[in-house]
Amino acid sequence: MKVAALKELCAALPGAQAVLYGPPSNILVYEVSGKKFAYFKTSTPEQWRFSLRASAERFIELTDMPGVKPARYMGRFHWVTIVDVARFPADYLAELVHDSYTRAVASLTRAQRAATP
After folding, report:
1. Sheet holding 68-70, edge to edge
2. Residues 25, 91 contacting (CB under 8 angstroms)
3. How far is Cα 82 from Cα 65, in angstroms, rounded to an integer?
4. Cα(95)–Cα(39) distance, rounded to whole angstroms?
5. Which tens digits make up the pLDDT trace of 66-93?
C-alpha cells in the first residue's frame, strides 16, 4: 500500500480528523474525538514512517517482523512503527488501522462515542 492510500484510509474512518504538528515533532496525526489512532512522521530521515496502536499480542507479533519496531516513546503503550508501508499487504495494513481506530473509539466516553458519526 502506498502512503497516499494509507492516508486516505485513515481519513475516511468515521469521525477521523488529520492534524499536522510542525516542528519539533513534525507528525501528521489521525485522531477521533481527540484520541490518536495513527500517525506519520513528516520530516527526514524518518519521513512517512507510520505508527499505530496494537493489542499486546499483536505488538509482539509485529515487532518480530522485519521493518517493524516499537514506536519511539509510545512502545510501552503497544504502539508500533512500520518503517516502509509499501512492503506490507494492503489488506493487512487496513486491518491494523481498523483495529487501532476501534481501540481509540473504545477509549472514548459514552457521550463522545454518541457524538462520533
Report:
1. 16-21, 27-32, 35-41, 50-53, 79-82, 68-70
2. no
3. 10
4. 16
5. 999 999 889 999 999 999 999 999 999 9
For the CA atoms of the chain, what is the radius of gyration? 14
Q: Is the pTM of this model over 0.70?
A: yes
Chain mean position to CA 50: 6
Q: Give ∠ CA 73-84-101 in degrees, rounded to 5.
A: 60
Give the C-alpha separation, 98 to 73, whole Å.
22
Tell me which DSSP letter residue 48 carries: T
Q: Is the peptide bond before 24 cis (omega within 30 degrees of 0)?
A: yes
Q: Is 5 exposed, middle or buried (0-12, 13-18, 19+ CB in 10 A)?
A: middle
pLDDT in tens, 26-73: 999 999 999 999 999 999 888 999 999 999 999 999 999 999 999 988
Task: State how beta strands 50-53 and 35-41 pair.
Answer: antiparallel
